[in-house]
Amino acid sequence: MNNYRSSFLSSIPPVVKNLIAINLILWLASVLTPGLLSRFGAGTELSDILGMHYWASSKFNPAQLITYMFMHGGFEHLFFNMFALYMFGGILERLWGPKRFLFYYLVTGVGAAIIQQAFWSIEYHSVIKALDDAISANSGQVLLNSSSSIGQYFRLENISSFDAPALIEMKRLFLNMPITVGASGAVFGLLLAFGWLFPNQELYVMFIPIPIKAKYFVFFYGIIELFMGVAQFSGDSIAHFAHLGGMLFGAILIMYWKKKRLF
C-alpha cells in the first residue's frame, strides 16, 4: 500500500503536486481556523482576505488577483478543480516543463480575474452611479427613482428616508459584496490548452455515454459558459466570465508561443 502511494505521488509532476497541496492546505485552514482570523480586521473567513473583491471595494488588494485562485468555496469546488488540475495539468507540465507550465497557469488565473473585474465594472456601473447621484442629492428617493437594479441587492423599504451618510454606508456594503474564489479560471485555461494541443484526444465525460474529442468538448463547454454568463440566471453564483477569461488568456498565450516557435 505504501509503495502504491509513493508511486502515485511520484507520478504527479512537481508543480501540479505543489499547487494541489497549497490549495488543500488553504482549504483546510479556511475550514478549521476561521475564528483566529478576526484579529486581522478582515472578517472571520480566510476567503475574505485571500478571495478577490471588486477593485473599488475597500477590501480589495492587488495580490488577490493571484491569491483568489488558491481559495475555494467548499470541498466539492476544491475537488473538481484539483481533479481537473491533476488530469490536464499533469500532461501539460510534462509537455512544457515546470517553469512554462506554472507561468501559463498563473497568467490564465490572473487573466480570468481581470475579465471578472471587467464584468463586475459593467454589471455594477448603473447601481454605483445611482448611489453616487443619491449621495450627492442627500436623498434616498433619488435612488428609488433611478433605473438601476438596486432592488436585486437591497430591500427597498425605508430607502427613501436615507440621507447621505446612510447612502455612503450602503455603497460601501454594495462594493464589498462581490467576491470570487477558486482555481476554475486557471483550470479552464488548462482545458483550452489541452483541447488545442490534443484536439483529437477522446475524453470520457460524466453522464455522456460516448467519448467526445477534446476540441469539441472545449468548444461546447466554452459556448455553455458564454450562454450562462450572458443569461445571468437567478441564484447562479458561478463566475462564468472568469472561466472564459482563463480560456481567452490561454489562447492568446498559446498563439504567442506558437508564433515565437517556443514549442
Automatic annotation (TrEMBL):
Sequence ranges assigned to domain Peptidase S54 rhomboid in this UniProt record: 64-119, 175-256
Pfam families, per the entry: Rhomboid
A Gene Ontology molecular function term of the record: serine-type endopeptidase activity
Chief site of localization: membrane
Coiled coil: none
InterPro entries named among the record's database cross-references: Peptidase_S54_rhomboid_dom, Rhomboid-like_sf, Rhomboid_protease_S54
Membrane topology: Multi-pass membrane protein
Gene3D superfamilies to which the protein is assigned, alphabetical: Rhomboid-like (1.20.1540.10)
Name of the molecule in the record: Rhomboid family protein
Organism of origin: Paludibacter propionicigenes (strain DSM 17365 / JCM 13257 / WB4)
